């Protein structure tokens, strides 16, 4: 770059800093953005990532042009230094290389076979029907125990029933459910 070109870029940067001059910024953007993008790609960045980072560097010019000091460096040197530093920051933050792509937690689960899903839905429907056949109190106690997740003591406290009564009524409700499900063929008696 010639000295007069450095002076022109410095003048344009001063217009951006002082006046937010869009035309000056456009000229700088058109000159530097493709060069920064190419520089980043030569350093091994993926094209899309290089494009994003070049855009970010040019946004720094737009918002922080007042920080550019032509006595210390040319505008090109300043922008390429920003690009270099942003790339280093990005590499430091990127921890994807620490992930093992074969780690089971990163692999999608195998889809459930259709017949197993249908069997599970049928079984769930049978259990719903069987639960509807329970008395209101038995259903309430089972819901507290298995859907709300209360302990037998907490159920006794909530319902005002003695602990032994809660336990025996839950046991009776299970017995009734089992008979209904066995009669329906939903439970093996083996």
Task: Write structural notes for this entry.
This protein is mainly alpha-helical and 190 residues long. It is built from eight helices and no strands. Helix 6 packs across helix 8 (163-184) and helix 7 (152-159) crosses helix 8. It is elongated, with a radius of gyration of 35 Å.
Strand and helix layout:
Blueprint (H helix, E strand, L loop, with lengths): L2 H17 L2 H21 L4 H18 L10 H19 L20 H19 L3 H13 L3 H8 L3 H22 L6
Helix pairs in contact: 1-2, 2-3, 2-4, 3-4, 5-8, 6-8, 7-8
Mean pLDDT: 87
Shape from CA axes?
elongated
Overall radius of gyration? 35 Å
Number of helices: 8
Number of strands: 0
- What can be said about the biggest beta sheet? none
What is the succession of H and E elements? HHHHHHHH
CATH topology annotation of the largest domain: Rna Polymerase Sigma Factor, Chain: A
β-sheet strand percentage: under 5%
How is this structure best summarized?
This protein has 190 residues and is mostly helical. It is built from eight helices and no strands. It has two domains: 3-97, RNA polymerase sigma factor, region 2, helix turn helix motif (Rna Polymerase Sigma Factor, Chain: A), CATH 1.10.1740.10; 114-184, Arc Repressor Mutant, subunit A (Orthogonal Bundle), CATH 1.10.10.
